[in-house]
Amino acid sequence: MVAEGRKLVVYPTPLGYKGGMSEQTYTVTGMTCDHCVRSVTEEIGGIDGVTGVVVDLPTGKVTVRSGTALDVADVRGAVEEAGYELTA
Ligand SMILES: [Cu+2]
Description:
Blueprint: E1 7-10, E2 22-29, H1 34-45, E3 50-56, E4 61-66, H2 72-82, E5 85-86
Antiparallel strand pairs: 1-3, 2-4, 2-5, 3-4
Helix pairs in contact: 1-2
The protein binds copper (II) ion.
Copper (II) ion binds next to helix 1.
């Protein structure tokens, strides 16, 4: 089952939530399929304060939404934990 280009969204922000939101986009290399997307999404989603993760598989862009700004080292660690590499 291939679903290239599909965006997987988890931990959606509750409707009407406005306060203290931060959104940052990273680039992850090594993801090839939905399985990779899920691994990265779950690892990053496990970081304290993360409220949303959107992965665009073709570009490797990972958009992370959180209540407060995240430490890039935490995001890098989560990506590496999933078995991939954060390049930007
Ligand atoms: Cu994969």
